[in-house]
Amino acid sequence: MPTSDGELFRLGHGGGQDWRAATEACLATLGALPPDSNVGFVYITDHFAANASDIADLLCEATGIGTWSGTAGIGICVTGREYFDEPAVAVLVGAVPEGSFYSFTADDKGVDKCAKGYFGVVHCDPRNPRMPETLTAIADATGGYLVGGLTASRGAYPQFGDSVTDGGISGILFSDDIGVVTGLSQGCSPIGSAHEVTACEGNVIIELDRRPAFEVFCEDIGEVLARDLQKVAGYIFAALPVSGVDKPDYLVRNITGLDPQIGLVEVGELLQTGDRVMFCRRDRQSAHADLDRMLGDLKQRAGDAVPRGAIYFSCLGRGPNMFGDDSGELKAIQEALGDVPLVGFFCNGEISNARLYTYTGVLSLIL
Known about the structure:
It is a single chain. By secondary structure, the protein is of the alpha+beta class. It is globular, with a radius of gyration of 21 Å. The chain folds into two domains: 9-179 and 305-366, no CATH class; 188-281, Elongation Factor Tu (Ef-tu), domain 3 (Beta Barrel). The strands form four sheets. Strands 15, 16, 17, 18, 19, 20, 21, 22 and 23 form a nine-stranded antiparallel beta sheet that branches. The model is unreliable at 1-6 (pLDDT under 50). It has helices at 19-30, 52-63, 131-142, 213-221, 223-227, 284-302, 320-323, 328-337; strands at 9-15, 39-45, 68-73, 75-78, 81-84, 88-94, 101-107, 110-111, 119-124, 145-150, 159-160, 164-165, 169-174, 180-186, 188-190, 195-201, 204-208, 211-212, 236-241, 250-253, 255-259, 264-267, 276-282, 309-315, 342-347, 350-352, 355-357, 360-366.
């Protein structure tokens, strides 16, 4: 990609055994900011989840920036590196035209305040039972294309916004003054064709294509796995094809139960008769290949425009679990895009076009 003549975003990151040391290390790598810097994204590992308000106060004081958005993860992402299950703080700070972005918050009752925006970065509390409906409401109210991730924490579930909160959805909407291209990389690949759900109760599939669901499941996964169902967990999943899109797409959901005697398959999604379901497997080879595909597609769509910053949301099941311990996933992105300032985190679920995905990587380039 061509070299940029200007700078829109700057990256800072650092680790440390206490929140202040890690935040100060982060600020040290960030360096002196342009005077017009006015928006920032911040991600912390869950080691510091209880200190989110302290971190926010220090960032505001040190940078003079009042608009922040972000959350906590088991791991966080920066250019060419991941801090996975180690204490760390990362920020991406930008200077964007006034009036071209809007910080918002939505609580568990719906949209609290919104504005029109064509692209939004959102962070959600996975404990919120109304999250899917609220995401849809935000997308409808703003006309925006939403990307983001669900907080992943073994303690508190903070979200950085106008203040540090939890329980809801928060983020930043950008107008079309800010150029963005975004892509999604799947971590699971289909192993059979899509089937019609012809009988179900809630999330329990009784029949697929008018046959016992478990029978169809066994045919798709093959005889070896069907003889040893213990190997299915964490390897085989259900996938729900997304209709009305120009490229094949699907939402991966866990298989939460199998009943060979009655012939049932239970999945992590409420279903209705007429829905389509296929089965897929999680493997490193297909994940690597699809990451490369996504990166090639993004570079092509960006054309001659130089990415000034990037935000990446990756599933907890990716990272070292799928790409190795040496930040393989982030290094692959760096190799393809160069030293673009990138920040993000490892999520409990990823959001693309206001849909909730799992085992995916969602990358957005700010042009």
